[in-house]
Amino acid sequence: MPDQTPVKPAKAAASDRRASGITWVLVADLGRARLLELQRPDGRLLEIESFVNPQGRGPEREQRTDRPPRVQESANSARHAIEPHTSLREKSAERFARELSEMLERGRHDSRFDRLLVIAPPQFLGVLRVAFGKSLRDLVVDEIAHEMTTRSTQAIHDRLPAVALR
Q: What's 128's domain CATH number?
């Protein structure tokens, strides 16, 4: 009689490989992002990488051209200024969020973490949510809508919710 031992599905084997309990903490805003790792078992928070988005820094007026673009009316010779649908600052934020998402996706694919906590100002948090794919969103254990990129790692650690510390 053939051996009747159950075979583990491939998906379960892949999840065993990732069951490391590593939590990454992304602390980001329009101009800067810090990637931190919550160390086990002592719970220390270590910065493992940082990113800069130069276009995200400074007031939006510095990113504008002197004049908005013009359009010619089709019915007569009148010309009007038009405002772009998306500001340069919004485009920069979307591009930066995509870059961060790609970096996190590589880390997820390489099984470097299995839980993600995201800390960002409310507006940028929304941009990040849009940029994250489903597989990355599934790893998000919590979000904190707050600006903390300039805070010390200890100050960030003190704000971590209990779900991240488990």
A: 3.30.420.60
Residue with tokens 């704000």: 159
Long-range contacts of 41-45 (CB under 8 A, 24+ apart): 43/157, 43/165, 44/157, 45/153, 45/154, 45/156, 45/157, 45/160
Mean pLDDT by 10 residues, the chain (166 residues): 46 43 95 93 90 76 51 60 70 95 96 95 96 96 95 93 79
Count structural domains, the chain: 1
CB 99 within 8 A of CB 132: no
Distance in angstroms (rounded) separating the CA atoms of residues 4 and 160: 47
Backbone angles phi, psi at 56, to 5 degrees: -85, -5
